[in-house]
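Per your request, structure below.
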């Protein structure tokens, strides 16, 4: 499918799916990566309302937090002190923080009000019931337990639903997800479509499961040796790429036939639903909220890092339909997180999460959220910067292999790029390549992912379009001196999830 980019300098970027169903064309059509000025296209009408060429965030700013600019010398010192790992920088040494979109969102006044209304009872807090109702209404799951964040839920699900030696097929690994699956004795098997591993493949649903791969995994050792399908929507490590409803329906059919449950990582499902609305036939007139509900209806349960889609700074939950499994989880949550009505969170956190869940599925919110990511991506594409396409939901993933073609993967090109960008500008991104992929637990060898990416994740409702312009300029400056980069040497490698704490020095 051909993709047509169009960016409105004064407004926001958008992409029209040329030849496929799409959102109404709000910005006129330009050629690929053609950064055009405003004013070319007349407003077009959708079914419901007059759409303008430009649109804006559906909120205004009520409180601000000053940012600190640093000198290159200060950044050099901070970077050396951090072992060239952006995770080890102090946030006060960072100017624009694109390390992650996790827990870095700005809450609304309604969410802050919910904090003040926290019911801090140990058991049966009112906020628990608010959260339960929000999860039921928005995601459609009857029962859930709160967890302190996503990995708390991953831990519980893995411990309760995986037997030692069972396979856990998934649409690409995620770091903490796979770690918990392996700790529970599971063996992760990647069943994502091949397109996901190719940064230039423009397939609109690069998060899709490859049905043939899934079928092969199931028939290899029999369905009883498969714990569940671990399905993420969107797929973080592939660049925030979505799964189509059609793919999920087919996966559902296959899994039902053989009795393998589907558990969904719903961390960025709202962003996934936006892409379905935009790109999949039959969904243009459905609300994002309806699409989220339908998507969940094809699964047997879900876990959530509410620090992403749900617009809070901390929180998560786990929901499964199977009553026996839920009983086990509701019992075990007490051991690791806290009582089943607070799961490691304060009552006020539960209240803010309940409110955030409802805000997250508002169409205007999600359109501006993904629109801002796209705006940055299209600025960069206009400068010829290599990055994962289509542009995903939560960030820009720079293609470090093509950025630094002279560096081998053992020289950690994506880690190098994150370090160089910080040094240039004080902007912090994150490595998503060989360091993040870790080692095979059996052979001890590096996993060598095809994707060697530096992620610039955009927090929700935090930065302005002008910040995005500054980021684009900084990446362009690093690209201009790309030939000088020499790569890094890993000098300290932690045993678990090494990317968080590893240290490096320049070669
Ligand atoms: N699943 C996905 C898809 C995630 O992106 C994350 C976290 C988790 C689960 C775990 O959730 O952090 O609340 O324990 N991703 C963060 C990131 C760390 O920066 O992408 P958590």
């Amino acid at each position: 499918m051909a993709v047509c980019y169009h960016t409105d300098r004064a407004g926001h970027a958008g992409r029209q799916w040329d030849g496929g169903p799409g959102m109404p064309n709000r910005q006129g059509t330009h050629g690929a990566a053609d950064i055009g000025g405003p004013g070319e296209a007349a407003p077009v009408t959708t079914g419901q309302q007059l759409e303008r060429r430009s649109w804006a965030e559906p909120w205004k700013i009520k409180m601000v937090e000053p940012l600190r600019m640093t000198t290159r010398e200060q950044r050099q010192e901070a970077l050396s002190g951090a072992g060239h790992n952006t995770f080890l920088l102090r946030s006060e040494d960072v100017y624009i923080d694109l390390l992650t979109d996790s827990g870095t969102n700005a809450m609304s006044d309604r969410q802050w009000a919910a904090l003040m209304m926290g019911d801090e009872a140990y058991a049966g807090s009112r906020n628990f019931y608010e959260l339960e109702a929000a999860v039921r209404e928005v995601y459609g799951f009857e029962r859930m337990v709160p967890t302190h964040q996503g990995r708390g839920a991953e831990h519980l699900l893995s411990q309760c639903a995986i037997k030692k030696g069972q396979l856990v097929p998934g649409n690409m690994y995620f770091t903490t997800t796979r770690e918990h699956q392996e700790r529970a004795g599971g063996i992760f098997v990647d069943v994502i479509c091949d397109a996901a591993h190719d940064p230039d493949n423009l397939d609109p649903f690069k998060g899709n499961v490859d049905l043939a791969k899934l079928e092969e995994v199931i028939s290899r050792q029999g369905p009883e040796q498969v714990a569940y399908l671990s399905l993420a929507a969107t797929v973080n490590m592939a660049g925030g790429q979505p799964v189509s409803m059609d793919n999920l329906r087919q996966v559902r059919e296959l899994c039902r036939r053989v009795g393998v449950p589907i558990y969904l990582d719903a961390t960025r499902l709202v962003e996934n639903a936006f892409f379905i609305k935009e790109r999949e036939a039959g969904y243009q007139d459905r609300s994002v909220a309806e699409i989220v509900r339908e998507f969940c209806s094809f699964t047997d349960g879900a876990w959530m890092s509410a620090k992403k889609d749900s617009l809070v700074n901390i929180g998560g939950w786990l929901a499964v339909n199977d009553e026996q499994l839920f009983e086990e989880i509701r019992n075990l949550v007490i051991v690791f997180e806290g009582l089943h009505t607070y799961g490691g969170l304060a009552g006020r956190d539960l209240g803010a999460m309940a409110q955030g869940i409802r805000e997250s599925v508002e169409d205007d919110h999600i359109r501006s959220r993904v629109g801002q990511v796209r705006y940055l991506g299209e600025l960069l594409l206009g400068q010829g910067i290599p990055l994962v396409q289509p542009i995903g939901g939560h960030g820009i993933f720079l293609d470090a292999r093509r950025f630094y073609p002279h560096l081998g993967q053992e020289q950690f090109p994506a880690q190098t790029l994150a370090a160089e960008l910080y040094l240039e500008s004080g902007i912090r991104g994150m490595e998503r390549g060989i360091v993040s992929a870790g080692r095979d637990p059996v052979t001890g060898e590096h996993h060598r992912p095809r994707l060697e990416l530096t992620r610039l994740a955009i927090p929700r409702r935090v930065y302005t379009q002008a910040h995005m312009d500054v980021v684009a300029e900084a990446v362009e400056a690093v690209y201009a001196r790309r030939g000088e980069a020499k790569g890094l040497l890993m000098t300290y490698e932690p045993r678990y999830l090494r990317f968080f704490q590893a240290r490096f020095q320049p070669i």
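Residues 100, 102, 149-151, 174, 176-177, 232, 236, 265, 267, 305, 307, 316 surround F0G (CB under 6 Å).

Regards,
D.
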